[in-house]
Amino acid sequence: MQLIRIIMVCALALVAPVALVNAAEDAPAVIPPVMAPATNAAPAEASEAPEGLPSAAQEIFKIGAFPVTNSMVVTWIVALGLIVFARVAMRKMQAVPSGMQNFWEWLVESLYDFLESIVGKDLVKKTFWFFATIFIFILFTNWFGLLPGVGTIGRGVATEHGFHVTEPFFRGGNADLNMTFAMASIFMILWLVWALRSNGIVGFVLHIFGPKGDSTGFIKYMMIVIFFLVGFLEMISIAFRPVSLSFRLYGNVFAGENLLEAMSNVVQHPAWAHAVFSVLLPIPFYFLELLVGLVQAFVFMLLTTVFTALICLHDEEHEKEHHH
Questions:
Q1: Contact at 8 Å (CB) between 97 and 105?
Q2: Is residue 151 left, alpha or beta, with left meaning phi > 0 and alpha meaning psi from -120 to 50?
Q3: 293 near 137, Cβ under 8 Å?
Q4: Is residue 191 one of the residues assigned to a domain?
Q5: Integer CA distances (angstroms), 17 to 68, 71, 179, 184, 204, in order
Q6: How many domains does the chain have?
Q7: Which tens digit of pLDDT belongs to each residue from 237-279?
Q8: Residue 238 forms part of a structural domain
Q9: CA-CA distance, 20 to 71, in Å (whole number)?
Q10: Which of 59, 121, 166, 222 has the most CB atoms less than 10 A away?
Q11: Which residues share a beta bridge with 158?
Q12: CB 87: neighbour CB atoms within 10 A?
């Protein structure tokens, strides 16, 4: 049941990006008037230059007034695949696991033990479902974006060098800032809930603005003023956490996909060389992006876990967990 709960929560990320509308996508580009070039070669070369991955996900169809982008389609596919994979793997559970069941149990148990070492035995029971889901979902979304066809299948135009895709049907889910910001925002809401449950309203305020350590006399009153001012800096830091979390993940995934596209377009002429090197040159970078996808999923999970532990665990509880 724990595993099913973990995978089912992937659906939480499916509709979250819809709440964030990218206004830049619909804004018309303002092109200042320029003088005509001296020759006709420059426009021809500019039209032949390969374009990079657009910063915003592209809308591919609508369900009524509901816009669906290519990155949303990928997140739906990944979430559905994880749910089906987990259901099939755990359909006939065995006392001695093997095959897919063995893989899922190893993954879940490893994550549980790791997270327990950070947040403790009590808090991990309340938060494990989210942190494990985030890691699994981000990891497989990152890796799905490396599959052939993502970014290369879609609507486009025919050119003298072949068919050029201008509106791909699939785009890496985490290469969309709406997606990463939605996950970071969901975490911050849960972080606030967990913090209030662990500390209460008064304890939450004291945790941020209250003085730390033991002091007496004049030093005590001076520390109260200092930590009260430091609390405002802490509030600014907390407010920027969803921004840093979302841009870190988005920036790494977006840069990786642009790198792969740039490597596939290094050689343009002749046509046979382009066909060969567009396949061979990106191969080493695919292995790099596999590692980046794993690292970024782990970093996102680790940072959210540490943020939660810092606000929910008190010094004495933390020391007690380490002694155990």
A1: yes
A2: left
A3: no
A4: yes
A5: 10, 9, 5, 11, 30
A6: 1
A7: 999 999 999 999 999 999 888 888 888 878 777 777 777 777 7
A8: yes
A9: 13
A10: 59
A11: 163
A12: 13
Residue 282 token pair: 């990106």
Distance CA 298, CA 289 (A): 14
Q: Is 49 part of a structural domain of the chain?
A: no
**What 3-state class would DSSP assign to 33?**
coil
Six-digit token string for 322: 């380490």
- Residue 97 CB partners (closer than 8 Å, separation 6+): 105
Distance of alpha carbon 55 from the chain centroid: 15
State which residues form the domain around 189. 103-165+174-323
- Is 23 within the bounds of a domain? no
The per-residue pLDDT for range 49-108, each reduced to its tens digit, is 456 677 788 888 888 888 889 899 999 999 999 999 999 988 888 877 778 888 999 999
CA torsion, ordered 252, 255, 260, 263, to nearest 10 deg: -140
DSSP-H helix ranges across the chain: 2-8, 41-48, 70-89, 99-144, 177-209, 217-239, 241-264, 271-280, 283-312, 315-323
